[in-house]
Amino acid sequence: MVSRLHIPHNCTINLKPTALKQIQKMSDNLVIVVTGTNRGIGKGITTVLAQQNSKRPLTIYATSRTGTDTGIDTNSPNEVRYSTLDITDRSSIQSFFQQVLKEHSAIDILINNAAVSNDYRENPEYAAQTVWTNYGGTRDMCEAFLSQPNIRPGARIVNVTSGYNALSTYGPELQTQFRGATTITDIDALAKRYLEDMSSGLDAQQSAGWGPGARSYKVSKALNSILTVVLARQHPDVLVNCCCPGWVNSDMGRQGKGTPPKTLEEGGRTAVRLAIGDLGPGGDEDGGLWKESDKLSGRFYENKNIIVPGWGTSKLWLEL
Ligand SMILES: NC(=O)c1ccc[n+]([C@@H]2O[C@H](COP(=O)([O-])OP(=O)(O)OC[C@H]3O[C@@H](n4cnc5c(N)ncnc54)[C@H](OP(=O)(O)O)[C@@H]3O)[C@@H](O)[C@H]2O)c1
């Protein structure tokens, strides 16, 4: 079969499928992958991205375990493609990357949003699920992204973490271990150590320096944050940042007491800023989308408090 490609000056040329594929791969679209988009903040992030009047058209892969088409309104020429992806399943990650890299030379931006929170039913099994989804799944997605053969300088990773990630809530020895992590193996060791300590009971967990009560969600987000710092140091050509979306009216947000004040789109703003916006230190009233700006990496962005629907300001997580 031959496809038709329209070019300026009313010319039409006929192309073989292989040539057409080659041209499509070289297109100037910015290719973005978002995880956990069938509901919640992932849906909000995808909506904000899809509605951009972009300098470069956005091809957004909205991924979820079910691949659900949520019918997000899209500003042409942006495009949303729905796809299945379970971040806890390495074969799912591998086949997803293979599928996308058949269609594009590289993925430019990865937004790791998918996560679980089991704090209301904490036990060793749920703690392991939380840690290996929120930290392990994010780690595996980052590794797949960073090992793309044609990754471009300036590629970006955004890890959606939480204001519950503060390092100061841990005992001094653990803080030193977090601060001293320089490799993924070091971070894996922290994750395993937490799960071992908590499996001996809440007292053992607390005396080991992890803090009282259900901690797996908080620990998973601290692990995500140190992952962000370590990857930013290891990959100076890639911009790796993390953010807190604030308190958002999603299924997870409603686990807290009261009504979360932020909409899904407001919750998606800081992640969108870190994906296609200003990476300077200050707050930006509109996220500085598409602005040429500073290029900070390894930072944590959040708003003044969890109810403010802003675009975030930069912090050094290691100092929090
Ligand atoms: N809501 C808040 O107030 C708040 C505050 C701070 C941080 N956050 C962070 O914001 C992000 C989004 O949270 P949310 O509030 O939107 O949560 P949510 O409403 O519970 O949605 C979580 C999303 O993650 C997906 N997911 C879970 N496990 C997955 C897996 N193994 N593979 C792929 N997708 C998976 C879920 O898909 P399924 O439908 O398949 O389960 C769902 O789409 C999370 O990283 C969360 O920690 C949220």
UniProtKB/TrEMBL annotation:
It comes from the Eukaryota. The keyword rRNA processing does not apply. InterPro entries: NAD(P)-bd_dom_sf (IPR036291), SDR_fam (IPR002347). It comes from Cucurbitaria berberidis CBS 394.84. Pfam families: adh_short. SUPFAM superfamilies: NAD(P)-binding Rossmann-fold domains. One of its GO terms (molecular function) is oxidoreductase activity. The keyword Oxidoreductase applies. Belongs to the short-chain dehydrogenases/reductases (SDR) family. This is NAD(P)-binding protein. Keywords: NADP, Oxidoreductase. The lineage of its organism: Eukaryota, Fungi, Dikarya, Ascomycota, Pezizomycotina.
